[in-house]
Amino acid sequence: MRGYSAKAVANYFLKKYGKSGLTPLKIQKLVYISHGWFLAYYDAPLVGDEYAEAWEYGPVFASLYHEFKYRGRLPIINLGTDIDGDFRTVTPRIVRGDKVTQKLLDKVWDVYGGMSGIELSELCHQPSSPWDKARKESPGIRNAHIDDGSIKKHYLEKLERNRADHE
């Protein structure tokens, strides 16, 4: 499986579920959570073009931050864009036939889509979370990378707890 850009994942949520817009905070957390579950289920990164970073206020994909920061706390109303090799503006997307990824993203929305950006943030900021560990292991480093192995382990543990709770 190949990874997508963080913007392609964000655009999936914005196009399918963001009829009245999604805040930059909420989109950041949805992409991060989706990346975590993808690592746990498929042992491959969903976001393949950059690492999640441990910013002061939570895990962040820098490309999303820079793309949507102009919105502040207002909902995002336009899809994210990139510049291709021919210097044309393109809209990154999940491949139409990639049903595996679409199914996972739809499930993430079913579980987390009703939560606010703040609620999602609280999930990502828990003690011993990959974000918390990256911050503690890299004191003084502003935007330390959050290791995909740490994210995968965290979501595998969540998966095991969920399975145990339903047995």
Helical/strand content category: mainly alpha
Q: Write down the Rg.
A: 15 Å
- How many helical stretches? 7
- Residues in helices, as a percent range: 40-55%
> What form results from the Cα inertia axes?
globular
Order of helices and strands: HHEEHEEHHHEH
Low-confidence stretches: none
Distance between the termini: 31 Å
Largest sheet: 3 strands, antiparallel
Strand coverage percent: 5-15%
Query: Order of strands across the widest beta sheet?
Result: 2-1-5
Explained architecture:
This protein is mainly α. Helix content is 51%, strand content 7%. It is built from seven helices and five strands; from the N terminus they run ααββαββαααβα. The chain has a three-stranded antiparallel sheet with strand order 2-1-5. A hairpin with a 5-residue loop joins strand 3 and strand 4. Helix 2 crosses helix 4 (99-112). The longest helix has 19 residues, at 24-42. The two termini are 31 Å apart. The mean pLDDT is 94.
Keywords:
167 residues, mainly alpha, 3-stranded antiparallel beta sheet, two-stranded antiparallel ribbon, 5 strands
Q: What can be said about this structure in brief?
A:
The chain is 51% helix and 7% strand. The protein has seven helices and five strands, in the order ααββαββαααβα. It has helices spanning 6-17, 24-42, 62-68, 99-112, 117-124, 130-137, 148-165, and strands at residues 53-55, 58-60, 82-83, 89-90, 144-145.
Please write out the topology.
Blueprint: H1 6-17, H2 24-42, E1 53-55, E2 58-60, H3 62-68, E3 82-83, E4 89-90, H4 99-112, H5 117-124, H6 130-137, E5 144-145, H7 148-165
Antiparallel strand pairs: 1-2, 1-5, 3-4
Helix pairs in contact: 1-2, 2-4, 2-5, 2-7
